[in-house]
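Quick one - first record:
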Amino acid sequence: MKTVKTADFGVMDYKEAFDIQKKINRYLQMNHEIAGYLFFVEHPPVFTLGRNRKEEDFLFSIDYVKNQGFQVFESNRGGNVTYHGPGQIVGYLLVNMEHFKKDVQWFVWQMEEWIIETLKNVNMKSNRKEKYRGIWIEDEKICALGVAIKRWATMHGFALNHTTNLDHFHYINPCGITEYGITSIEKQGVDYPRKDMIQFLKKNFERMYMTELESITMEEVKWIASKTEA
């Protein structure tokens, strides 16, 4: 049974979490015997720019968006522009794919399936859309996905709208999509605390990825990240 170590960062600035991810990703590239890490986090309001973003993805100037109190950060993940903020459950899955399956399409599909199965735990029926990545409740997106993979070591993951302020999505075309809306677990009338949702995510992860999760502290995560610093 593979062991994946897990930690809940709580509320953390996007840049700090991004820097930790980059270091852990490098650590995995140097240590192929390690299966990986699963981190949960909640970010202050921030728009992140994926490698495929377009100028029209923002509905206002970036200066205006920043003046409204949002951070704007350039990321190395795939996809367009997306939003992270309070009330959103963000999961960063950093693994050596050789311990699972060296197949990028499988990796993204499996992450989508993981979210679909977790939403079933709270009696929510969700689906995929053929044209777009992510998880949907009919024609409203509830979960965005984005990944970056280097030498079969992954980073980034999913952003599941829990009690998210959906008005914040009005500044952008989320993930470059204009014809559909955005929803959340709260908007769907489902009431489960964040800690319960994370427990569902953990249990489904262990079952679907055939792993055992082992909790580590924030101090341990930072120590591991420091091993890549010369």
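second record:
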Amino acid sequence: MIGTRIKEERLKKGFSLSELALRADVAISYLSSVERNIQSNPSIQFLEKIAEALDTQIHSLMGNKNEELDGDLDEEWLQLAKEAQNSGISKQQFVEYLEFTKWQKQKEQEK
């Protein structure tokens, strides 16, 4: 979960919860709730601030960089990724789209 990864990165840097909140200019209470996975869907803006304060990339907070794919991407997925790149979609825009889609799916499941 994102909160667990943020906490791990914070501890690696030797930051206290309040120090990271101050460096990232976010509320300590919100950061605490994210780290404890109470708030499980933080905004991209929040993640950008945290990633910058931790001197890391958003994608490393969103997913374990050591995880391997469950299989090779098939040719159709590769072609879709190439088309997205060629159409001018940035990696950041794609990440935001994925996060929005996950959020929508989560909201639908909560109903």
